[in-house]
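Lecture notes, unit on protein representations.

Consider one protein chain, 153 amino acids long.
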Amino acid sequence: MQENGTHTDPRAQLRAAGLRVTAPRLAVLGAVATNPHSDADEVAAEVRAELGSVSTQAVYDVLKACVNAGLLRRIEPAGSPARFEARTGDNHHHLVCRDCGRVVDVDCVVGHAPCLEPSQSHGFEIDEAEVVFWGRCDRCRSAKSPDHQLDHQ
């Protein structure tokens, strides 16, 4: 598990958040830590591979509890299912590939939260800024390059 780049014990994280330590919670935290930016179905498949029969609803419940407790972060790139990551508390941003949907982390532009400030706060106390950068990843760009396409004709 990561928070601001440090690894901590998932059991200790659950306890510190006031959550009971259960096998499904540990499996969900492990799955998200191992495969950041996974959607709920991908997390559920990982959890089932580790524990056997676990309902999809149980996985959704664990994800929701962990997000609410600040142990996981939920991101929702446009046109994509919600994704989950264990990197929390640092207000980082994301790059999303328009072709394959790959998501990677990008550190905050300034380095402290929030790293962007709106032109008007409208009375809000701003504590976080979320930015999604869109483009094409290196794999998708190279797959579409003319040289690569000639190799496959």
